[in-house]
Amino acid sequence: MTYQAAGTGTADRDVWTFARFEAGQDFGTVEVEMDAERHASWERIFGPTGDRLPRGMLVTAMMEAYIRAIQPRPDGNIHASQELDFREGAVVWGDTVAIEVNCAGKEERNGRFWVRFGIVARTAGRVIMTGTIRSIWAA
User: Fold this and answer.
1) Is residue 110 one of the residues assigned to a domain?
2) N or C terminus of the chain: which is more exposed, having fewer CB within 10 Å?
3) By CB neighbour count within 10 A (0-12 exposed, 13-18 middle, 19+ buried), where does 70 fall?
């Protein structure tokens, strides 16, 4: 299987390791459509939502983008924390959420590889959420 290395534009089979990350590195934008199938799945679990997209669905879209943007990944990474800032303005089912993913920084501390990823989510060109994901990278 051939993988597209995020942000490189070249085919690459190398797993993303701590050494490959650079502060400011752009992993591109992943678009996640808040379509009828996602809406139905959400409502099967949580009940009716109406037209407005729940913030929790934005979080799931963010995680999907983060996972899709950086592939292949080593086994054993730990999602240590996240900080999110939701902006005013309604997002509705049917919108497409475009999520930018970048490397906000990295550091080695106590023998562990910490990587911070920046997230910016937009719909219709408007920022709807920003955030940081902190991961302990396994390799």
Assistant:
1) yes
2) N
3) buried
- With respect to residue 10, please indicate whether it lies within any of the assigned structural domains: no
Determine the Cα angle at 137 with ends 18 and 61, to 5°.
Answer: 110
Q: How many domains does the chain have?
A: 1
Model confidence over 14-58: pLDDT tens digits?
A: 999 999 999 999 999 999 999 999 999 999 999 999 999 999 999
Q: What is the DSSP string of 32-75?
A: EE--HHHHHHHHHHH----SBPPHHHHHHHHHHHHHHHS-S--T
Placement of tokens 């999602």 in the chain? 79
Domain range enclosing 72: 22-137
Amino acid at 51: D
**For residue 88, what is the domain's CATH number?**
3.10.129.10
In a domain, 12, yes or no: no
Do the domain assignments include residue 9? no
- Residue 25, token pair as written in the block: 């590195």
